[in-house]
Amino acid sequence: MTAEQKAKEKEYIHGYNHNTPKIIDEISIEYHRLMSEWVSVNERLPEIGQDEDYPYASEMILLSDGESVYYGQFEKCPDEIGVFLNSEGDDLMDDDIMITHWKLPQPPK
User: Fold this and answer.
1) pTM for this prediction
2) Distances in Å between the alpha carbon of 81 and those of 16, 58, 93?
3) Secondary structure of the chain in the HEC alphabet?
4) CA 20 to 30 Å from 65, out of 41, 50, 86, 93?
5) Are residues 44 and 18 in the same domain?
6) Average pLDDT, stretch 16-27?
7) What is the tally of structural domains in the chain?
8) CA 74, CA 58: separation in Å to the nearest integer?
9) How far apart are CA 60 and CA 50, in angstroms?
10) Do residue 20 and residue 44 come from a single domain?
11) Cβ atoms of residues 30 and 37 within 8 Å
12) Which domain does 19 fall in, by range?
């Protein structure tokens, strides 16, 4: 094995090579692109359980019924249907608001 091959093998053993920063940047860009788009509730619901203090709720997200935008979260207890709540914790369906899309809020770039 040549010295160059040994150096490359050592890089891979430690989980790093010259492409690692580029790969991390590409993943970050794609993640932010996906998270800045509205997601249909028919396609995917927000993840719950990110906060151990609120295992049945999503983080705070933007919600839309196609006409207005709300700030709230998705909550789903075991064996129950999930609900979208406004920032005060009220079920939006109680006000006949049918959420069709959601997205994570992103800070300005």
Assistant:
1) 0.64
2) 44, 14, 12
3) CCHHHHHHHHHHHCCCCCCHHHHHHHHHHHHHHHHCCCEECCCCCCCCCCCCCCCCECCCEEEECCCCEEEEEEECCCCCCCEEEECCCCEHHHHCCCCCEEECCCCCC
4) 50
5) no
6) 73
7) 2
8) 5
9) 11
10) no
11) no
12) 1-35
CB-based contact 54:44 (threshold 8 Å)? no
Q: What is the pLDDT of residues 25-40, one digit of tens each?
A: 777 777 666 656 899 9
Give the CA radius of gyration of the chain.
21
Per-residue pLDDT reduced to its tens digit, 51-96 = 889 899 999 999 999 999 999 999 999 988 899 999 999 999 999 9
Place of tokens 């959601």: 102
pLDDT of residue 25: 77
Total residues belonging to the chain: 109
The values of phi and psi at residue 63, to 5°, are -125, 145
Phi, psi (5° rounding) for residue 101? -145, 160
Q: Are residues 22 and 47 in the same domain?
A: no
